Amino acid sequence: MYTQLALVSSVLLAVFTQHAVAVDKTRDPALDANLVTAATQLDRLALLDSDDAWLFDFTKQQPYYNFAPGGVVNMNAATFPAAKGNGMTLAMLNLGPCSMLPPHYHPRASNYVVAVQGNTTTYMYEENGARLVTETLLPGMATIFPQGSMHMMVNNGCENAQLVSALNADDAGTQARSKPYPNIGNVFTNGFPADLVNAAFGQNLASSDVASKMTPIGTGSNWGLSECLKQCGIQPNDTYIKF
Protein backbone atom coordinates (compact mmCIF):
# COMPACT_ATOMS: atom_id res chain seq x y z
CA MET A 1 0.00 0.00 0.00
CA TYR A 2 1.22 3.47 -0.86
CA THR A 3 1.40 6.04 1.86
CA GLN A 4 -0.17 9.39 1.00
CA LEU A 5 3.29 10.87 0.41
CA ALA A 6 4.33 8.01 -1.84
CA LEU A 7 1.09 8.35 -3.79
CA VAL A 8 1.65 12.06 -4.34
CA SER A 9 5.28 11.40 -5.28
CA SER A 10 4.32 8.76 -7.83
CA VAL A 11 1.72 11.01 -9.41
CA LEU A 12 4.20 13.86 -9.63
CA LEU A 13 6.86 11.63 -11.13
CA ALA A 14 4.41 10.63 -13.85
CA VAL A 15 3.49 14.27 -14.42
CA PHE A 16 7.05 15.43 -14.85
CA THR A 17 8.04 12.60 -17.16
CA GLN A 18 5.18 13.45 -19.52
CA HIS A 19 5.36 17.25 -19.57
CA ALA A 20 8.60 19.04 -20.38
CA VAL A 21 9.57 22.26 -18.63
CA ALA A 22 11.43 25.12 -20.26
CA VAL A 23 15.03 24.13 -21.02
CA ASP A 24 17.66 26.36 -22.63
CA LYS A 25 19.22 24.91 -25.76
CA THR A 26 22.90 25.67 -26.32
CA ARG A 27 23.05 28.08 -29.23
CA ASP A 28 26.65 27.43 -30.32
CA PRO A 29 28.21 24.38 -28.59
CA ALA A 30 31.46 24.64 -30.57
CA LEU A 31 32.00 28.28 -29.60
CA ASP A 32 31.25 27.52 -25.94
CA ALA A 33 33.79 24.70 -26.00
CA ASN A 34 36.44 26.92 -27.59
CA LEU A 35 35.83 29.64 -25.01
CA VAL A 36 36.47 27.11 -22.24
CA THR A 37 39.78 25.96 -23.73
CA ALA A 38 41.06 29.41 -24.74
CA ALA A 39 44.45 29.95 -23.08
CA THR A 40 44.07 33.68 -22.40
CA GLN A 41 41.39 36.34 -22.23
CA LEU A 42 42.74 37.79 -25.47
CA ASP A 43 42.16 34.41 -27.09
CA ARG A 44 38.58 34.52 -25.80
CA LEU A 45 38.08 38.01 -27.19
CA ALA A 46 39.33 36.84 -30.57
CA LEU A 47 36.56 34.24 -30.60
CA LEU A 48 33.96 36.91 -29.79
CA ASP A 49 35.11 39.12 -32.63
CA SER A 50 32.01 41.20 -33.41
CA ASP A 51 29.88 43.69 -31.50
CA ASP A 52 26.88 41.44 -32.11
CA ALA A 53 28.57 38.73 -30.04
CA TRP A 54 28.29 41.02 -27.01
CA LEU A 55 24.63 42.00 -27.40
CA PHE A 56 21.65 40.00 -26.10
CA ASP A 57 18.08 41.13 -26.86
CA PHE A 58 15.61 39.63 -24.40
CA THR A 59 12.63 40.78 -26.45
CA LYS A 60 13.65 38.70 -29.48
CA GLN A 61 13.84 35.37 -27.63
CA GLN A 62 10.67 33.68 -28.85
CA PRO A 63 8.48 32.04 -27.75
CA TYR A 64 9.83 32.71 -24.25
CA TYR A 65 9.38 36.49 -24.28
CA ASN A 66 5.60 36.76 -23.96
CA PHE A 67 2.89 37.70 -21.46
CA ALA A 68 0.23 35.12 -22.36
CA PRO A 69 0.71 33.56 -19.94
CA GLY A 70 4.38 34.58 -19.70
CA GLY A 71 7.87 33.19 -19.90
CA VAL A 72 11.45 33.17 -18.65
CA VAL A 73 14.29 34.38 -20.88
CA ASN A 74 17.78 33.43 -19.69
CA MET A 75 20.97 35.15 -20.78
CA ASN A 76 23.48 32.45 -19.85
CA ALA A 77 26.21 30.23 -21.24
CA ALA A 78 23.73 28.29 -23.37
CA THR A 79 21.90 31.22 -24.96
CA PHE A 80 24.70 33.81 -25.01
CA PRO A 81 28.25 32.46 -25.45
CA ALA A 82 29.85 35.68 -24.17
CA ALA A 83 28.44 34.75 -20.74
CA LYS A 84 30.47 31.52 -20.66
CA GLY A 85 32.99 31.62 -17.83
CA ASN A 86 31.66 34.83 -16.29
CA GLY A 87 29.77 33.10 -13.49
CA MET A 88 26.38 34.73 -13.92
CA THR A 89 22.95 34.30 -15.49
CA LEU A 90 20.65 37.26 -16.09
CA ALA A 91 16.99 36.41 -16.62
CA MET A 92 13.88 38.37 -17.52
CA LEU A 93 10.69 37.00 -15.99
CA ASN A 94 7.44 37.93 -17.71
CA LEU A 95 4.18 37.19 -15.91
CA GLY A 96 0.97 38.05 -17.70
CA PRO A 97 -2.17 38.82 -15.69
CA CYS A 98 -2.96 35.98 -13.25
CA SER A 99 0.02 33.91 -14.40
CA MET A 100 2.70 32.27 -12.27
CA LEU A 101 6.05 30.53 -12.23
CA PRO A 102 5.32 27.13 -10.63
CA PRO A 103 7.43 25.71 -7.78
CA HIS A 104 11.05 25.09 -8.80
CA TYR A 105 14.61 25.52 -7.59
CA HIS A 106 18.08 26.18 -8.98
CA PRO A 107 20.61 23.50 -7.97
CA ARG A 108 23.74 25.52 -8.77
CA ALA A 109 22.95 29.16 -7.96
CA SER A 110 21.35 31.65 -5.61
CA ASN A 111 18.71 33.83 -7.24
CA TYR A 112 18.30 37.58 -6.72
CA VAL A 113 15.00 38.93 -8.08
CA VAL A 114 13.94 42.58 -8.46
CA ALA A 115 10.50 43.71 -9.62
CA VAL A 116 10.33 46.12 -12.56
CA GLN A 117 6.59 46.19 -13.21
CA GLY A 118 3.38 44.94 -11.61
CA ASN A 119 2.48 43.27 -8.31
CA THR A 120 4.07 39.87 -7.67
CA THR A 121 3.89 37.59 -4.64
CA THR A 122 6.84 35.26 -4.08
CA TYR A 123 6.98 32.13 -1.92
CA MET A 124 10.24 30.52 -0.80
CA TYR A 125 10.89 27.38 1.25
CA GLU A 126 14.55 26.59 1.85
CA GLU A 127 14.67 23.21 3.60
CA ASN A 128 12.88 20.85 5.97
CA GLY A 129 12.08 22.65 9.21
CA ALA A 130 12.31 26.11 7.66
CA ARG A 131 9.38 28.51 7.54
CA LEU A 132 7.70 29.69 4.37
CA VAL A 133 8.94 33.16 3.34
CA THR A 134 6.32 35.22 1.51
CA GLU A 135 6.98 38.62 -0.08
CA THR A 136 4.98 41.06 -2.21
CA LEU A 137 7.22 42.74 -4.77
CA LEU A 138 6.31 46.11 -6.27
CA PRO A 139 8.59 47.94 -8.73
CA GLY A 140 11.98 48.58 -7.14
CA MET A 141 11.59 45.85 -4.49
CA ALA A 142 13.72 42.71 -4.42
CA THR A 143 14.15 39.38 -2.67
CA ILE A 144 16.59 36.47 -2.74
CA PHE A 145 16.10 32.73 -3.16
CA PRO A 146 19.17 30.93 -1.74
CA GLN A 147 20.74 28.17 -3.81
CA GLY A 148 18.59 25.05 -3.82
CA SER A 149 15.55 26.69 -2.22
CA MET A 150 12.10 25.89 -3.62
CA HIS A 151 10.27 29.01 -4.78
CA MET A 152 7.38 30.26 -6.88
CA MET A 153 6.05 33.62 -8.11
CA VAL A 154 2.49 34.78 -8.83
CA ASN A 155 1.16 37.86 -10.62
CA ASN A 156 -1.68 39.09 -8.40
CA GLY A 157 -3.35 41.50 -10.80
CA CYS A 158 -4.82 42.17 -14.22
CA GLU A 159 -1.72 43.96 -15.52
CA ASN A 160 1.54 42.48 -16.73
CA ALA A 161 4.31 41.91 -14.20
CA GLN A 162 8.00 41.83 -15.06
CA LEU A 163 11.00 40.96 -12.91
CA VAL A 164 14.74 40.73 -13.50
CA SER A 165 16.63 37.83 -11.97
CA ALA A 166 20.38 37.47 -11.40
CA LEU A 167 21.90 34.07 -10.59
CA ASN A 168 25.53 33.55 -9.55
CA ALA A 169 26.29 30.84 -12.15
CA ASP A 170 26.31 30.82 -15.94
CA ASP A 171 24.67 27.37 -15.80
CA ALA A 172 22.34 27.66 -12.80
CA GLY A 173 19.95 24.88 -13.78
CA THR A 174 16.23 24.71 -13.03
CA GLN A 175 14.66 21.72 -11.34
CA ALA A 176 10.98 21.09 -10.75
CA ARG A 177 11.45 17.65 -9.21
CA SER A 178 14.20 15.65 -7.54
CA LYS A 179 15.04 12.39 -5.84
CA PRO A 180 14.50 10.93 -3.34
CA TYR A 181 10.74 11.03 -3.74
CA PRO A 182 10.03 12.83 -0.42
CA ASN A 183 11.60 15.95 -1.94
CA ILE A 184 8.80 15.94 -4.50
CA GLY A 185 6.26 15.75 -1.70
CA ASN A 186 7.75 18.91 -0.17
CA VAL A 187 6.00 20.92 -2.88
CA PHE A 188 2.72 20.12 -1.13
CA THR A 189 3.81 20.05 2.51
CA ASN A 190 5.99 23.15 2.85
CA GLY A 191 3.24 25.75 3.13
CA PHE A 192 2.79 26.86 -0.48
CA PRO A 193 -0.91 27.74 -0.91
CA ALA A 194 -2.60 24.53 -2.04
CA ASP A 195 -4.81 26.28 -4.58
CA LEU A 196 -1.79 27.86 -6.25
CA VAL A 197 0.14 24.59 -6.31
CA ASN A 198 -2.87 22.84 -7.83
CA ALA A 199 -3.13 25.65 -10.36
CA ALA A 200 0.48 25.02 -11.33
CA PHE A 201 -0.34 21.40 -12.14
CA GLY A 202 -3.87 22.01 -13.40
CA GLN A 203 -5.62 19.43 -11.21
CA ASN A 204 -6.06 18.14 -7.66
CA LEU A 205 -3.02 15.94 -7.19
CA ALA A 206 -4.88 13.02 -5.62
CA SER A 207 -6.86 12.40 -8.82
CA SER A 208 -5.93 9.52 -11.07
CA ASP A 209 -5.87 11.55 -14.30
CA VAL A 210 -3.66 14.44 -13.17
CA ALA A 211 -0.98 13.72 -15.80
CA SER A 212 -3.43 14.17 -18.66
CA LYS A 213 -4.69 17.50 -17.30
CA MET A 214 -1.49 19.14 -16.13
CA THR A 215 -0.91 22.65 -17.45
CA PRO A 216 1.95 22.63 -19.96
CA ILE A 217 4.81 24.86 -18.78
CA GLY A 218 6.64 25.24 -22.09
CA THR A 219 8.05 28.75 -21.70
CA GLY A 220 8.44 28.59 -17.90
CA SER A 221 5.13 30.20 -16.90
CA ASN A 222 1.52 29.04 -16.73
CA TRP A 223 -1.90 30.48 -15.95
CA GLY A 224 -2.78 30.79 -12.27
CA LEU A 225 -6.02 30.80 -10.31
CA SER A 226 -9.38 30.57 -12.04
CA GLU A 227 -10.78 33.29 -9.73
CA CYS A 228 -8.15 35.75 -10.94
CA LEU A 229 -8.68 34.79 -14.59
CA LYS A 230 -12.42 35.36 -14.22
CA GLN A 231 -11.95 38.69 -12.45
CA CYS A 232 -9.60 39.91 -15.18
CA GLY A 233 -11.78 38.60 -18.00
CA ILE A 234 -9.09 36.27 -19.33
CA GLN A 235 -9.90 33.14 -21.32
CA PRO A 236 -6.71 31.07 -21.68
CA ASN A 237 -6.09 29.79 -25.18
CA ASP A 238 -6.49 26.12 -26.01
CA THR A 239 -2.81 25.42 -25.32
CA TYR A 240 -3.50 25.77 -21.61
CA ILE A 241 -6.03 24.03 -19.42
CA LYS A 242 -9.12 26.02 -18.47
CA PHE A 243 -9.84 25.66 -14.76
From TrEMBL:
<dbReference type="GO" id="GO:0030145">
    <property type="term" value="F:manganese ion binding"/>
</dbReference>
<dbReference type="InterPro" id="IPR006045">
    <property type="entry name" value="Cupin_1"/>
</dbReference>
<dbReference type="InterPro" id="IPR011051">
    <property type="entry name" value="RmlC_Cupin_sf"/>
</dbReference>
<dbReference type="GO" id="GO:0005576">
    <property type="term" value="C:extracellular region"/>
</dbReference>
<feature type="domain" description="Cupin type-1">
    <location>
        <begin position="56"/>
        <end position="212"/>
    </location>
</feature>
<dbReference type="Pfam" id="PF00190">
    <property type="entry name" value="Cupin_1"/>
</dbReference>
<keyword id="KW-0464">Manganese</keyword>
<keyword id="KW-0479">Metal-binding</keyword>
<keyword id="KW-0732">Signal</keyword>
<comment type="similarity">
    <text>Belongs to the germin family.</text>
</comment>
<dbReference type="InterPro" id="IPR014710">
    <property type="entry name" value="RmlC-like_jellyroll"/>
</dbReference>
<protein>
    <recommendedName>
        <fullName>Cupin type-1 domain-containing protein</fullName>
    </recommendedName>
</protein>
<dbReference type="InterPro" id="IPR001929">
    <property type="entry name" value="Germin"/>
</dbReference>
<keyword id="KW-0964">Secreted</keyword>
<feature type="signal peptide">
    <location>
        <begin position="1"/>
        <end position="22"/>
    </location>
</feature>
